[in-house]
Amino acid sequence: GQNIDQPTEMTATEGAIVQINCTYQTSGFNGLFWYQQHAGEAPTFLSYNVLDGLEEKGRFSSFLSRSKGYSYLLLKELQMKDSASYLCAGGKTTDSWGKLQFGAGTQVVVTP
Amino acid sequence: DGGITQSPKYLFRKEGQNVTLSCEQNLNHDAMYWYRQDPGQGLRLIYYSQIVNDFQKGDIAEGYSVSREKKESFPLTVTSAQKNPTAFYLCASSIDGAVLAGKINEQFFGPGTRLTVL
Predict the structure, then answer these.
(1) Which of A33, A19, A36, A14 is nearest to A84 (CA)?
(2) What is the 3-state secondary structure (H, E, C) of A13-51?
(3) pLDDT band at A2 (very low <50, low <70, confident <90, very high)
(4) Which of A59, B17, B55, B83 has the most beta carbons within 10 angstroms of its beta carbon?
C-alpha cells in the first residue's frame, strides 16, 4: 500500500513552534500537500511541495524529502486560531491524472 | 464570489432510503471529487470526475453513485446499499486533474454535508 502516517495529536503553547511530521512510502507519490481543517469545516490549502527542500509562507513552512518519504509542516508563533487538524496528502499520478491520498490528520491544540 | 457550495449542511435520513447530496461550483473547474471523512481516518475518495459526462470510481465507491451532466454540478447519491452511510461528506474541485510539469493542481473544498442515517 501507500500509507501516509502522521501523529494523531500535538499540543503546544501560544507563541511557540510546532512541527508536524508526515511519512509516506516513496513510490507512487508526486509531491505532498498540506491542508488545514477546523472542526466541521472544509479543508483549506496551505502548501504543496513537489521538489525537495523548504518552502516558507509567512508563519507556515513546509519541507519535503522525496528520497526519505518525509515531509513536515512547521507552524511558528502559534496563535489560538491555529488549533485545527492538519492533513498531509500525497499526490498520486495515474495515467497522467493526479489524485490525492490523505493521512488521518494531526489535531493541533494550542493552549494559552 | 467564486467557490464551492454543498447543501444541506446537515441531513438526516432513515435507514434504507437513498439520499442525494448537492455540490455546485462556479470556479469553472473541470475536475470534481467526492470524499468521505470519518473520525480518526483520512479523507477517502468516493468518486471523481475529470470532465463533463465522465466519472471514475475512487477507493470506496460501493453503495454510492454520481452524475456529471453539467460542469458546475456533481451530485452524490448515497444508496441503501451503503452499509455505513453516516459520515461527513466533502466535495472538491480543481482546475483539472492533469499532471503538468510534474505538478498536481490543488483541490478546493466545499463546506461539507454531515449525513446521519437513523
Answers:
(1) A36
(2) ECCCCEEEEEEECCCCEEEEEEEEECCCCCCEEEEEECC
(3) low
(4) B55
Q: Which residues of B touch A98 (CB under 8 A)?
A: 97-99, 104-105
Best mutation target among A93, A99, A102 (most B Cβ atoms within 10 Å) is: A99
What CA dihedral angle connects A69, A101, A36 and B2, to 10 degrees? 130
Is any Cβ of chain A less than 8 angstroms from the Cβ of B73?
no
* CB-CB contact of B9 with B114 (8 Å): yes
Side chain identity at residue A18, one-letter code: V
User: Is A15 at the interface with chain B, CB within 8 A?
Assistant: no
Interface check A43 vs B, CB under 8 A: yes
C-alpha cell at A51: 521538489
**Distances from the Cα of B19 to the Cα of A29, B13, B70, B84, angstroms:** 34, 7, 20, 13
Q: Quick: pLDDT tens for B72-94.
A: 999 999 998 888 999 999 999 99
